[in-house]
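Need tokens for this chain, all 499 residues.
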Amino acid sequence: MADWHTTVTPPALARLLAAARLPEPATARRPAYRVLAGQIRLLVTEGRLPVGARLPAERELASALELSRTTVATAYETLRADGYLLSRRGAGSWTALPEGAPPPSDALHPVPPDEQGRTLDLGVAALPAPQPFLGEAAARAVEQLSCYAAGHGHYPTGVPVLREAVARRYTERGLPTTPDQILVTTGAMGGLHLIQRALIGRGDRVAVEAPSYAHTLQALRITGARLVPVPYGYRPEPEWDLTEWRRVLRGAAPKVSYVIPDFHNPTGALIGEEQRRELLAAARAAGSVVLVDETTAELGWGVPESVPMPRPMAALDRAAQVVTVGSAGKLLWGGLRIGWVRAAPALVRRLASDRVYSDVGTPVLDQLIAADLMGEPLPAVRAHQLDRLRATAHAFAAALPEHLPGWTFAQPPGGLSLWVSTGGLSGAALAQAGERGGVRIAAGNRFGSDGAFEHHIRIPFTVPAPAVPAAVRRLAATAARAAAGGRFGPADGAPPLAV
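Here are the structure tokens for all 499 residues:
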């Protein structure tokens, strides 16, 4: 197997090592072999040195770096012990990732390590792929690919087999749907961008929940929409404040109302069917299109199987005023970049015509993998992912009160995160302290349309359950550092935080 791996020459590795800067505490008063091992580990975890790359022999690298062979040999042995290097006599050594290690980080949003070289990413609410299901589906999809490869590969509406699978899933959830009502998009955000361009002009008002999904809020701002926040009600669980919604719909007459009724991001709230009907009636009277985000609709890990889920909002719509966006990314895997729009066939055709001037279509292989997973494997895949989410959610619910007793939250019935009140500590200050301590934190003000929620953070259920206690201890240490620095928000009487 090692013969297939890319070989990194000594000069090439020396150049990479020169750019691999470890934090000062990680290099101060440490043996040279530990610094070298830490640099190679950093290159692997950041993706700058591919997993499976064959490293130079110890003597060759020692010569290129002007180090002793003993230093390089000890560094390699340290990496082998930590699982970052595999070796075989006569075949050499090549890079690896230990089981449970985080994958290579992204250059746009790197997670800096702490002084021990550890990282904890609490910024992204997305699950790892369900294995072995993804690998098996990918193998079957590759076998089907030849049927599509004879053509140009452009499917602006999506490959038929996936449109059929998505339509079938909506029908199973209580919303009869045909494939001509489905447009496959490159992720849910791709669908939201298409809808925004088609329905929302610069200066148009858009009613949004407060809090709401940070990326959509920013995308709406970029399009020039005027956001009208509608606060959530708490009685005691999060739910729509319908009195406030009626006031906003009557007074602001928003062109579009954007809602996440199924395991809301970030609160995890599930909106009941009666509230859905009432919001639809108020929106219909105001002439507002209801844009429903269902990207987390399959993640009801806290809903007993005996309890029926509310039907999709479009099932309660007789006036074709609901446009729905869904995604395979939250349940299956975000790396597939598969989303969809469910709408009237005329709007689907319009959106498909518009998209040819941007991305033409979604990658065919990704669509075939998603279609396979949404077929026979779906119940097992869903059970696998919900078990993981449930275990992590319960672990956080137990660990947070123990280590951060001043923080409060409502345990949601599903979704990907906890919406946590930090007891007056600024979420932005926590995020800043986390950057220095190897913890990436999503500050609450990202989820408000007007800088609100300064004293909140979103904690995603993406840490494996056994690792949650250690993660919460690091979060508590980060909170202590932020508090010691006096970085509190305006509500505490301190000067506003400059971020």
